[in-house]
Specification:
Distance between the termini: 33 Å
Strand content: under 5%
Number of strands: 0
Structural class: mainly alpha
Number of domains: 1
Order of helices and strands: HHHHH
Largest sheet: none
Helix content: over 70%
């Protein structure tokens, strides 16, 4: 049963990667073109915003790779290790990078007065989700560090 759960989680990560890749390759460029045609006064922002949004997928994929690495550590019975703490720290940093990049993009779009309410809501949702993931990854990292300290203390007393 445990092996099935690990396999299910790994396949879910692969599913997320493929969905986001498909959206980035097929859906996002089409939406950028439609937005440029609908709002020709902001057509000059089409490629910079598109490139910026595609660039934010790099930390997202890196965080998913770290989550996949955590699942491998769990498979090898070494979930309570310094490697897991480092992986959680990297996931937390990736969440913060994504949140900060969308915040900066939102500010830049506001400065050029290209802030459509739908875009603002989408950016706020992305910022909130990324910040939440960063917060919980950091919380798990702190809990894991404390558990490792207790484990080392118990190992020293025995």
């Amino acid at each position: 049963m445990k092996h099935f759960q690990q396999l299910l989680l790994k396949s879910f990560i692969i599913f997320i990667v493929s969905i986001i890749a498909g959206l980035c390759i097929f859906w996002l460029p089409v939406q950028a073109r439609i937005s440029a045609e609908t709002f020709p006064e902001f057509a000059y922002l089409r490629f910079p915003v598109l490139i910026w949004m595609l660039a934010t997928t790099l930390p997202f994929y890196y965080a998913l790779f770290q989550a996949f690495d955590l699942l491998k550590l769990i498979d090898h019975q070494s979930a309570f290790s310094d490697k897991a703490v480092h992986d959680l720290r990297r996931i937390s940093y990736c969440g913060l990078i994504i949140a900060a990049s969308y915040f900066v993009l939102g500010v830049l779009l506001t400065l050029v007065k290209a802030n459509h309410p739908g875009i603002v809501l989408a950016f706020l949702a992305l910022i909130f989700m990324s910040s939440t993931i960063a917060f919980f990854a950091n919380l798990l990292k702190l809990l894991l560090q404390e558990a490792l300290e207790y484990k080392a203390e118990v190992d020293l007393t025995v």
